[in-house]
Amino acid sequence: MKCLKYTLDRFEGDKAVLLIKGDETVEEIISKKSILHTKEGNIYEKCFSNDYKVFKVHYLEKETINTRKRSLEILNRIKEK
């Protein structure tokens, strides 16, 4: 089984656009209904079986919170300059 992490970038109608973490140039479009906690910026882990069928998608709450916190700290440092 292989797992990849994604960031929820945006919505386009009933679709969610995910970006692969570490290579944000790669987009993957999935049904908005197939994920929980649909908020832009959330981080998900998507696991595949050996034949690359999606096995599970789950929301990474702690990683999302930590990433938002780091982003806010960086933004505040930039604003102080």
Automatic annotation (TrEMBL):
Protein name: DUF3006 domain-containing protein
Protein origin, superkingdom: Bacteria
UniProt cross-references to InterPro entries, sorted A to Z: DUF3006
